[in-house]
Every structure is written in C-alpha cells, then in structure tokens.
Specification:
Distance between the termini: 77 Å
Order of helices and strands: HEEEEEEEEEEEEEH
Helix content: 10-25%
Number of strands: 13
Number of domains: 2
Length: 251
C-alpha cells in the first residue's frame, strides 16, 4: 500500500478510535508499512498450573524472537516543524505480558495483561532537534485488556479505567497531562483466536494498527531554545548597557 493509501487509512482510524477520556485527543497513530505481513505474535504461556500469554512484534512472519517492525507514524493536533509533518518512517516494538487466562461468556473473550511496553522510534533523527531526536513515542502500562471473539481473526488490545499509562517522547511533553488512552486493532489472525474460558488462545499471528490519545504540548525545537537564550542574553546586555549609561550621566 502506498503512502496515500496509508494516509486515507490513518484518517479513517483517527475518526473511529474514540478516546476513553473526554479531555484527551488523538495525538498519534501507527500503521504497518506491509499490512499483509503478520508481524505481531500471540504466544500461549499456559502451563498445567497457570495461564498466561505474551504479545510481541517479530521481524518476520515466521520468527519467534522479539524485534522491531517498520511502520508509518503520524502526529496530529499540533503545529509541527516541517520534517515532523505527515507520515514518519519508523520502527515499532511491543511486548505485552499476561499472567491470567480469558474470561467472558458465550463467544466473548477478555484477557487481562498486567504490563507492557510500546516503542516507536524514528528511522532517522529529526532535523529540527539538531539531529539528535528519534523517540516518537514510548509507552509503558499496567493493566490493559485484549477483547476478542472465539474463532475471529480481528480483535482489540486497549487501555481501560484501571490502566496506568506513562508516555514519553522527544517531540511532545506529557509532564502535565492526566488523561491517557490507547487502542491497538489487530486483524488477519492465522489461526483465528481460540481460547477455552480460563485459558489462553492458541498461538497466532496478526497485523496491527494503533491509536494514542492524551493532551500533550509540543516540545520546543532545540534551535528555538538557542534563539531564546540568545534573546535573553541580548536583553540582559541591553539592560546592562542602559545602566552604565545612567551611571555615566549621573557622574
């Protein structure tokens, strides 16, 4: 799929992934560059005495080792420097861990995941940060959930009211935000999701997209800080010069 198709899909996704909090807004999302590749893996960790699962990204559809995958990432709702506008070439890594089996009724299945991380890194450093900034978004969380239906190839991984979420970025400031939310949409699972109640699903692979919501502010450009420092320095010099002139006249 070309960039134009990704943009159209991004706009559609942004319109359909509603934040859980009234005062949060969608500030970013990712889409796989190769949407046909199943680069997310769900691994069954059930034993005779316990249930659990792990979801992580792999570099190839057959790999069993965690790795980063190529994605497009887009930031919205902000006035951005030129090189941060539009689709960003990036790599994504996720790792989610559950220590419980599924609950639900009928065909519905919910599995709680106690912890996880999401990392989205720009392929090249941004020009506006003096070639030093690459962290588009890093997410750590506790208590999120996977919502699925039996024998279905599409399902959702999302935060909920019990989630604790931490966001960090080289380009956005989350220091003073409280509302945080995210949702990942998985599709094309092969085999389809299949879990007995109290157990995890069979091992499966799928593709994914994701949306993130909060209310951060933009981090000033490094060059802007430099200009501000120079500006303050100039003001200070002018004030000192003015004081010297007054002292001379007074003398």
């Amino acid at each position: 799929m070309g960039r134009l198709g990704i943009v159209a899909g991004s706009v559609l996704l942004l319109g359909t992934a509603a934040p859980a909090f009234a005062d949060s807004v969608t500030f970013g999302q990712f889409s796989q560059k190769s949407v046909s590749q199943r680069l997310f893996r769900y691994k069954n960790l059930d034993t005779a005495n316990s249930a659990g699962a792990e979801i992580y990204t792999t570099t190839t559809p057959s790999s069993t080792v965690s790795g980063s995958i190529p994605v497009y990432y887009i930031m919205s709702q902000f006035v951005l420097p030129a090189d941060l506008q539009g689709l960003q070439d990036a790599h994504l890594t996720v790792d989610f861990l559950s220590t419980s089996g599924t609950t639900g009724s009928g065909a519905s299945r919910v599995q709680m995941f106690g912890s996880g991380t999401i990392t989205i890194t720009r392929d090249t450093a941004a020009l506006e940060g003096w070639n030093s900034r690459t962290n588009l978004l890093t997410v750590t969380f506790t208590d999120a959930e996977l919502d699925a239906s039996q024998n279905n190839g599409s399902f959702t991984f999302k935060s909920n009211d019990d989630s604790t979420i931490t966001y960090s970025s080289d380009f956005l400031d989350f220091a003073n935000v409280f509302a945080k939310d995210f949702s990942l949409s998985f599709s094309g699972a092969d085999p389809e999701f299949d879990a007995n109640l109290g157990s995890s699903s069979v091992n499966t692979r799928f593709s994914g997209t994701g949306t993130f919501a909060s209310d951060p502010i933009g981090v000033p450009e490094v060059s802007s800080w430099a200009l501000l420092v120079l500006g303050f320095g100039g003001v200070g010099a002018a004030l000192r010069a003015g004081r010297r002139s007054k002292d001379m006249f007074a003398a």
